[in-house]
Structure formats: structure tokens, C-alpha cells
Amino acid sequence: MSRIAFFDLDDSLCDRRGAFLRWARDFCVDNGLDPATAVPVIVEFDEHGTRPRQAFFQLVRDRFGLGAPVEQLVAGYSPVYTQQYRLDPAVGEGVLALRSAGWRVGVVTNGAHWQREKLRVTGLDKMVDGWAISELEGVAKPHPEIFRRAAAACGGSLDDAVWMVGDNPVADIGGAVLSGLRSIWIELGRAWEEPAFKPDVTCDGPLAAIEVIAAS
Prior knowledge:
Blueprint: E1 3-7, H1 16-30, H2 35-46, H3 53-64, H4 70-81, H5 89-100, E2 103-109, H6 115-122, H7 124-127, E3 130-133, H8 134-137, H9 144-153, E4 161-166, H10 169-179, E5 182-186, E6 201-203, H11 206-215
Parallel strand pairs: 1-2, 1-4, 2-3, 4-5, 5-6
């Protein structure tokens, strides 16, 4: 029986921070803003991607006096932003090595429909066995249902799943706890602060997480 390892997408398999910074710099240039002073403000408004894009662009528009309507800014965001995504070739090789070793690999990600475009741009859509995206599924991490659907997309069931890798303490690690999975937290230089539960393993990035899974 194949075992399944789940990965979060943003700031877990892929560097979301780097992609957003590239988008922000280009956005500043396109709108006549000084990247040195505007990018830090835009990053602050973004709140690591958790602020809804309507509210985010309202703040950006008001702060910098942009003439374009918020709706236009929102509509132009995802087609450009998603193209900024990159996959570290070593991470891609690690994913393929897990599959060669008999693991099924799935992506479980909260977010809008454009998460699917990130998978395509990075080539992950061809590397993993399946995925579940919260907006498309109508259910989000940490609810176990999205993990069940991801397992089904990988051709298995939640009984086959072993690991969840992610950077979000509640969505990823909490979701793993609720779903009966072992968990690997991508710490990104942070200390663990959630008192109710903790990850089984803490790693500094996806390559280290892949090594843990391969050795398990």
C-alpha cells in the first residue's frame, strides 16, 4: 500500500515571500512608485497573504493615491502574481524521489482558485499525485475533510496518509492533529507558540522535511 505525504504550497513547497516581493517590485515600477519606500508598506499591508485582496488593494490604492479602481487592481493581480512563482529544482527532485520510493505526494492548500495556476507555473502539477485547494473544495484547513479530498485526489484515502508538511501552526499542524497525521512544521525562523499541540518534527525548509519523510 502506498503512503501519502501532504505538503502545503505557499512558504512550504514554494517561496511565497519571494514571489510576492517580485510582484510588489514590478507593481511599483508599473505604477510609478519608488520600490525602496513602497515595497515595505505593500508587504505590511499584505499580512503574509492573509488579508483579502479587495481590502489589500484598497489600502494600497488609498496610501499611494492610485487612480485605478480597486476592482481593476484585484482583477490584474493573480495573472501577474502567480507567474512569479518558482520551484527550487532540488525540491522538485526531492518530490520525485519520494514518488520513486513509493510515496504518493499531495498538495493541500488554503487559498483562491489561482493556487492551481501556481502548481502549473512551477511544474508541480506534473510532479505530485493530486491536490486540494480550499476555494475549489469549499472546505479549508484545518478541517479533516480537505485532507480526505486530497487523499482521494492522490488515489487513496486518509488511512493511507502519514505526513503533513506546512508552515502554518493552525491550518497545517492543527489540521494534521485533527486528521491523525504526523506533522512537520516549516519554522521560517520562528519559535513555536501554540500551547494546545505541537509538531512531531520541526524543519527549516522543504528539503529537510523531505529527508525526514524519506527516512520514515
